[in-house]
Specification:
Blueprint lengths: L3 E5 L4 H12 L3 E5 L3 H11 L2 E2 L7 H9 L6 E4 L17 H29 L2 E5 L12 H20 L4 E6 L6 H7 L1 H4 L5 H14 L4 E4 L2
Parallel strand pairs: 1-2, 1-4, 2-3, 4-5, 5-6, 6-7
């Protein structure tokens, strides 16, 4: 039987690289991202189902859940950076932080809640992409890091509550992505890891299916 995965933020970066890796192994893929044109190109390349939209919108999450009545793998990869240039906590715009919480915490939790019956039935897995900013005190990264810390604790408790589901909160490390370039500049981002290398490590993790927990991919 073919495995099915739902990947958010799948039009570029780690999401795209993982989609390509899983497609090469014969997975059935349902992909989402905000950029419809780029997502449709990826879906055509991989023979996947594209459902463009913003995971922060409840109606879009409902469409995604309806598209995966059976689900072996949910990858909550879509993420926002927040206010830029990266502000210090003392001056972080509160409305921008609310939006970031909606994208980085509420959206993945809501998608987990919507799909967990299908994941349970498949004895499947959930991957929540996190960051070392969730645990380290990096100047300017407080808003983003706080959302990832919340996602990590949600993952930790979910793993305890769902013993038949593998739950990994995976730290990909710094990658050469548009998000990192927006945060630190393109020149510095160019020296970071290739998302394809990180995707290979994540695919190996999915195949090995270790116990639930926090995982570093670099």
């Amino acid at each position: 039987m073919t495995n099915t995965a739902l990947i958010t933020g799948a039009s570029r970066g780690l999401g795209l690289a993982l989609a390509r890796s899983l497609a090469g192994a014969g997975w059935n893929l349902v992909l989402t991202a905000r950029g419809a044109e780029d997502l449709e190109k990826v879906a055509a390349e991989l023979g996947a189902t594209a459902i463009p939209g913003d995971v922060a919108e409840a109606a879009h999450r409902e469409r995604l859940a309806a598209a995966v009545p059976t689900l072996d793998l949910l990858v909550n990869n879509a993420s926002g950076l927040g206010a830029t240039p990266l502000p210090k906590i003392a001056g972080y715009p509160l409305e921008a932080f609310r939006v970031l919480l909606e994208t980085n915490v509420i959206a993945p939790l809501s998608l987990i809640q919507a799909t967990i019956p299908a994941v349970r039935a498949a004895r499947g897995a959930i991957v929540n992409i996190t960051s070392d900013a969730a645990t380290g005190a990096y100047e300017g990264w407080g808003g983003y890091g706080a959302t990832k810390a919340a996602l990590e604790q949600l993952s930790n408790v979910l793993a305890a509550e769902e013993p038949d589901v593998a739950v990994w909160w995976a730290d990909p490390g710094e990658m050469n992505t548009r998000m990192l370039a927006d945060a630190v500049g393109a020149e510095e981002a160019a020296g970071a890891a290739d998302p394809e290398d990180v995707a290979r490590a994540l695919h190996e993790l999915i195949d090995r299916r270790p116990a639930s927990g926090r995982v570093s991919l670099q």
